[in-house]
Amino acid sequence: MRVAPMDIANKTFGRKFFGLDTEEVFDFLRDVADEVETLSREHEQLKEKQKASEVALDDFRQREEALKQTLQTASQMSERMKVESQKEADLIIREARQRADIIIKEARESLRNMYQDVNDLKKSRMQFEAGLKSLVKAHLAMIDQGHTVVPDPGVEEPNLEVPKIQQPADL
């Protein structure tokens, strides 16, 4: 049975002959009622504090859960960004290698063309030199024939016989 401070303060007792001093009993009951009332208020305050603490604890738990989810989301995003960055880096490297292969292929082709041009120039030079030698030989042969047909002046008396002209063998 629950006893309220008011019940204690208003409690009455039956009287007996040579019983207790009623004034003392009532004073004591008032003191007990006051003490119970103080304890009751403190108890209510503690209940309110407990409720506030429970609300704060729930709030902290919710914040903790939100932080956990945020950290998990950030970790997932970080992992995705890492994977995407690696893919992008691989793509850039692949493209750079393809460009490098194309540049090397073009450089080799250009070098091959230069070697072909050099060989063509060597052939042209050899043909030119051969043609020039042939021309020089022909001119030398003509000069030699010219000396036999027309002698040098003042050296000898010319032979009146007409020499026969020979054709050069190289022509």
Walk me through the topology:
Layout: H1 5-9, H2 22-149
Describe this structure in words.
This protein is mostly helical and 171 residues long. The protein has helices spanning 5-9, 22-149. It has a domain at 5-118. 78% of the residues lie in helices and 0% in strands. The model has no long low-confidence stretch (mean pLDDT 85).
Mean pLDDT: 85
Classify the secondary structure makeup into a structural class: mainly alpha
Helix content class? over 70%
Whole-angstrom Rg: 65 Å
In total, how many beta strands? 0
What proportion strand? under 5%
What would the keywords be for this entry?
171 residues; mainly alpha
Short account of what is shown:
The protein is an all-alpha fold. The protein has two helices and no strands. Helix content is 78%, strand content 0%.
